[in-house]
Amino acid sequence: MPEAAGSDQIEDAVFAETGEWARVIGRLKDEVGETAYRSWLRSMRLDRVDGGEGVIAVPTRFLRNWVATHYADRLLALWRTENERMRRLTIIVEPRIAALAQAKEAEVAEPAPAVLAEPAGVPDIADDRANLSAPLDPRFTFENFIVGKPNELAHAAARRVAEACVSPVHTVPFNPLFLYGGVGLGKTHLMHAIAWHVRTQAPGRKVIYLSAEKFMYQFIRALRFRSTMDFKDQFRSVDLLMIDDVQFISGKESTQEEFFHTFNALVDQNRQIVISADKSPSDLAGLEERMRSRLGWGLVADIHPTTYELRLGILQSKAEQSRLRLPQKVLEFLAHKIVSNVRELEGALNRIIAQMQLVGREITLEGAQDLLHDLLRANERRVTIDEIQKRVAEHFNIKLAEMTSSRRARVVARPRQVAMYLAKQLTSRSLPEIGRKFGGRDHTTVIHAVKKIEELIETDSTLAEDVELLRRMLQS
Ligand code: ADP
Ligand code: MG
């Protein structure tokens, strides 16, 4: 085939599709009758055919919703009898075709189209669109985000994405940006910060920020009202899509499927996507393999647990904002003790601030300890089984591997039982979970170990001391 044939072939294809489209419309018109056709379908235009996707344009959003809900399925079915490659239909709003339709009407001297009254009972998708994006927390800006070692990569990446989004030169630095880390470490804060930045610097850009749960809800709702086309449309026309806590999508297959398609469509159009989750893509359970690998294509940025320095930095910044005089000693104490996450740290500080405002004087270190005793205790108890195994092995001078080995000699079996006992006492892990951590042992083995150590503590004072010592060390 000579190369020059290329463009002719394309034109032929488009022509064939137009003929095809005319036949589809003709058949639909026969089915629905002249009146319905005039009211709803006459202004429809074939915009393009893209692989197996037909894109239809209508002049108003209302018409789009109406056609999507009432005729889209039938339209696609008819189209497929003409062309079996057709897989889906997208209906877009193209206001210019209203003028086109009118001009055409004048030509054939038909009466002007009647104004369409909105029939009752049409799902109000247009309204929904306005609040498709979840509200943004005004405090979650880049200015209020304290950067430290644990979050510097995530922060820098979020900044890059935000700046690229508002830049007149369209670039997508990494797609997707995947932020992950434990709860309360600033994932949502960073996503809102990106959205705020874009909203203030480039208000014309369309940004959608949604929790994965809300995404799912919208999708299921769209299925129910048979407006999935519209749903797809909404997501596929955004410049920046951010989905928070994507771990909640795992396991929900139809939503995953939809998410995957939306995701691919946006990536193909070079639109930025930001995702957050509590785990890395490879550790997200219940996620399809293709989804998992696609999520890892861009930049995966891990937010690590806070360090003392970061915690102190955050406290100092928030204390300054409160304009109260908070003793440095108290801030340092909090930074030492509330190690779980930033949300709890803020909670602790807020309690202290409220107390100071109430009694009208500075708080003492003892006062803070009293006020926060429950939080402090909860933070003390956050010991991991790994830590317990390590400490216990060191204390009894055995190899760490003996914690999970099957050796039953007393010199290793007793320390293993002590570690299981401490795991039960100091963590919230269930018996089967503890068993698994100790080389896949059964939960009854754990019960036996706990009972055994409880008995020995009563009778063997050396062992009782060992256990007490270990407990204190682990909790300090
Ligand atoms: P996640 O979404 O990771 O669970 P959030 O973004 O909701 O966590 O953060 C929890 C709270 O901690 C929020 O109030 C947030 O403003 C605050 N926070 C987290 N990291 C920082 C930080 N580096 N600087 C300032 N505030 C932070
Ligand atoms: Mg969050």
Detailed description of the structure:
It is a single chain. The chain is α/β, with parallel strands linked by helices and 476 residues long. The protein folds into four domains: 7-116, GMP Synthetase, Chain A, domain 3, CATH 3.30.300.180; 142-303, P-loop containing nucleotide triphosphate hydrolases (Rossmann fold, 3-Layer(aba) Sandwich), CATH 3.40.50; 320-378, Orthogonal Bundle (Helicase, Ruva Protein, domain 3), CATH 1.10.8; 385-475, DnaA protein, C-terminal DNA-binding domain (Chromosomal Replication Initiator Protein Dnaa, Chain: A, Orthogonal Bundle), CATH 1.10.1750.10. The chain is 58% helix and 9% strand. The chain has helices at 5-32, 34-41, 61-70, 72-82, 96-107, 125-130, 152-166, 187-201, 212-224, 228-236, 253-268, 289-295, 308-322, 328-337, 342-359, 365-371, 373-380, 385-395, 410-426, 431-437, 443-459, 461-475; strands at 45-50, 53-58, 88-93, 177-180, 207-211, 240-244, 272-277, 299-302. The protein has a five-stranded parallel β-sheet with strand order 5-6-7-4-8, with helices on both faces. The protein has a three-stranded mixed β-sheet with strand order 1-2-3. The chain is elongated, with a radius of gyration of 31 Å. It starts with a helix and ends with a helix. The model is unreliable at 1-15 and 103-130 (pLDDT under 50). It binds adenosine-5'-diphosphate (ADP) and magnesium ion. The site of magnesium ion (MG) has 4 residues, from α8.
